Amino acid sequence: MAPWPTGFVGFDLETTGTDPAADRIVSAACVRMRDGVRESVRNWLVDPGIPIPASASAVHGITDERVRHEGMPSALAVPQIVDELHGAWARGDAVVIYNASFDFPLIVNEAQRHATTVNLDGLILDPLVLWRHFERYRSGKRRLSDAVEAFGVELVDAHDATA
Q: Which of 86, 101, 98 is nearest to 18 (CA)?
């Protein structure tokens, strides 16, 4: 069995909606932590190639105009994002994804659209799953903002992929 990872890569996406099969990435971030210290941050602002619904823009603040002018085409961004995940696993880092049941299928589907593959070759930790397990009788929502409030963590810009 592999040793417990000493490094973690926090991974998050902002998207055009809530359907992992149909929606697209508009922003992604990988934040690498080792021994409690932030080592690196990679950000992608992504032009999804489809209109960003106003309802999604209202959540994360990313607009069609912004991705057209500042974003990277998804055909270029998605392989880079996948490479970053593969690099994390190759180093033995765990990838931490809050609500991985949404973000991970979405990146897998995006990768398939761009003729690349996500090879799950390492550990994914989902704090949402752990929270549900250890506080199974807690009522209320369990969004990321609820988690940081419950555990006393400061969160800035919750709907920025680097949050």
A: 101
Whole-angstrom CA distances from 128 to 17, 75, 96, 151 are 20, 30, 10, 12
The 10 Å Cβ neighbour count of residue 10 is: 22
Q: What is the pTM of this model?
A: 0.85
Identify the bridge partners of residue 96 per DSSP, sorted by sequence position. Answer: 10, 125
Look up residue 11 and give its two tokens: 């991974």
Domain around 110? 7-150
Across the beta sheet with 25-34, the strand order is: 72-73, 37-47, 25-34, 7-15, 94-96, 124-125
Return the minimum-mean-pLDDT range out of 33-37, 66-70, 156-160: 156-160
Average pLDDT over residues 45-53: 97
CATH value at residue 82: 3.30.420.10
Indicate the number of domains in the chain: 1
Any residues with CB less than 8 A from the CB of 130 and at least 6 apart, and which? none
- Give the model's confidence band at 160: pLDDT under 50 very low, under 70 low, under 90 confident, else very high: low
DSSP code, position 28? E
